[in-house]
Specification:
The chain has helices spanning 14-26, 42-52, 58-78, 82-106, 111-133, 161-172, 204-214, 248-256, 267-273, 323-340, 362-366, 399-412, 436-444, and strands spanning 2-6, 32-36, 139-141, 181-185, 188-190, 196-198, 219-224, 245-247, 277-281, 290-293, 305-318, 346-350, 353-358, 377-389, 417-420, 426-431. The chain has 448 residues and is α/β, with parallel strands linked by helices. It is globular, with a radius of gyration of 23 Å. The structure holds adenosine-5'-diphosphate, aspartic acid and magnesium ion.
């Protein structure tokens, strides 16, 4: 059995969805669990709709939801399956209307409502995919919320692995006795009360890996709009090279430090069951893509890829040691986590001076700091985080490449903050945002 995840661009319109159907065909009689994202841009539209429902007029709200219904109906029409899926699309959009009306009446969009509204993107796209596949295969639609069980940390819920595994084995596995294909949603789950939760933006990759691990799949394939994992984001560096193999550790670091191609949490479930993860191109299914395994290219030296994370904020705290300092620091960090939904990406401490790097723009963090924190000396600075990734950066054979990293960064930025040596696969620097792209391009020349 293979778990396949299709991203937003892979299901953005009827022509993309035809590629999905053709890929399902190419896998012959193999059992497939298809996990899909919402049509591209839909989650962003839905999140905006949920927040705006508090203040826009009833007419404006209806117009936007009609637009969402029209987009899905028109995809279904182009695929010739409007008869099969039209009613279901309408029912789902009615559910969306009611949920948004609730937000408007309440005059408040709670994180719970926001997750409920965001979930309609995946619910709708999967209805269309299953409708199309059902024409030629035994394909069934299944609600992922019955399987992926989480806590109630809306917008970025934490998954209960054990419960999710037992639900998957109990409910999904037997369906393969009578169906070759199961179509379900990425990104969404539910808490113990049955409320809809989401796993964070880009979370469909994680859903696929969770389900793959739970069902002991043979492979997990992430179908996207590029032919694998490249030595840099091909949108920024078009000459970036795609890698054939990669280790779980290297892929984990690459996604953690900003490669959008994989959600950072995707690797853990796959690694726990040692299931190969493949990243492949929906629109060029003949390309081999990248295969991520335990060993990957672990023996390579130097760095194989460079990646940038922009709009990160560095929070520095220093103060006079004592009870107030400690309490205030803890309070501040708690407040940041509550307001921005962020845990720090990096944390370093030297004596009573602490540095936290958050994957959030400066204005998000500055609103968390108030006068009560005035016992401390706090500074906030916006940076880009540039990282070079390789399997063995601590080996002596990599020292020349690591040296090049420092040299290249220092040539472009006079006061970078280097972060290295924590993980053997990465060396990073916080640099001024305006020179980040040039540094990435210069570093890319040194990729092996
Ligand atoms: P999907 O909608 O399929 O989940 P995403 O947009 O989330 O797709 O991820 C795919 C994108 O990731 C690519 O279009 C590419 O621009 C970006 N990306 C960033 N870094 C890399 C990298 N190192 N290799 C490949 N793609 C990358
Ligand atoms: N649809 C969700 C998002 O846009 C999840 C995903 O695409 O992985 O964030
Ligand atoms: Mg993605």
């Amino acid at each position: 059995m293979i778990v396949m995840k299709f991203g937003g661009t892979s299901v953005q319109d009827s022509s993309a969805i035809l590629h999905v159907a053709s890929i399902a065909e190419q896998f012959g009689s193999e059992q497939l669990l298809i996990v899909s994202s919402a049509c591209s841009g839909m989650t962003t539209d839905l999140l905006k709709l949920s927040a705006d429902s508090v203040h826009i007029s009833d007419e404006e709200r209806s117009l936007r939801i009609d637009g969402i219904e029209d987009r899905h109906n028109s995809i279904a029409r182009s695929l010739g399956i409007e008869k099969q899926v039209g009613v279901r699309i309408h029912e789902l959009c009615d559910g969306l209307r009611k949920t948004c009306e609730g937000v408007a009446l309440l005059g408040e969009c709670t994180p719970r409502s926001s997750d409920a509204i965001a979930s309609f993107g995946e619910l709708l796209s999967t209805v269309i995919i299953q409708g199309l596949l059902q024409l030629h295969h035994t394909a069934i639609w299944y609600d992922a919320r019955e399987i992926i069980k989480t806590d109630s940390a809306y917008r970025r819920a934490h998954v209960d692995f054990d419960l999710t595994q037992s639900k998957a084995l109990e409910k999904l596995k037997p369906l393969f006795d009578s169906h070759r294909i199961i179509v379900t949603q990425g990104f969404i789950g539910s808490d113990s009360e049955g409320n809809t939760t989401t796993l964070g933006r880009g979370g469909s990759d994680f859903s696929a890996a969770l389900l793959g691990a739970a069902l002991h799949a043979d492979d997990i394939i992430i179908w996207t709009d590029v032919s694998g994992i490249a030595s840099a984001d091909p949108r920024i560096i078009p000459e970036a090279r795609f890698m054939e193999t990669m280790s779980f550790d290297e892929a984990r670091m690459l996604s953690y430090f900003g490669a959008k191609v994989l959600h950072p949490e995707t690797i853990i479930p796959a690694l726990s069951k040692n299931i190969p993860v493949h990243v492949r191109n929906t629109f060029k299914s003949e390309d081999k893509g990248t295969t991520i395994t335990q060993h990957g290219d672990k023996d390579a030296n130097g760095f194989r890829s460079v990646i940038g994370k922009h709009n990160v904020t560095c929070l520095n705290i220093s103060g006079i040691p004592g009870k107030d300092y400690h309490t205030n620091t803890q309070e501040l960090l708690h407040q940041i986590t509550q307001l921005s939904g962020q845990q720090p990406l990096i944390h370093a401490r030297v004596g009573e001076s602490e540095t936290y790097v958050y994957d959030a723009p400066l204005h998000n963090l500055s609103q968390c700091i108030n006068k009560e924190h005035n016992l401390m000396n706090i500074t906030l600075e916006e940076y880009s985080l540039i990282s070079a990734i390789g399997p063995n950066l601590r080996s002596e054979h990599s020292s020349k490449a690591v040296g090049k990293f420092y040299e290249t960064v220092l040539q472009a930025d006079s006061r970078p903050v280097f972060i290295s040596g924590i993980q053997p696969q990465t060396v990073s620097a916080l640099v001024a945002p305006d020179c980040a792209i040039d540094i990435l391009k210069a570093l890319h020349h040194h990729c092996t």
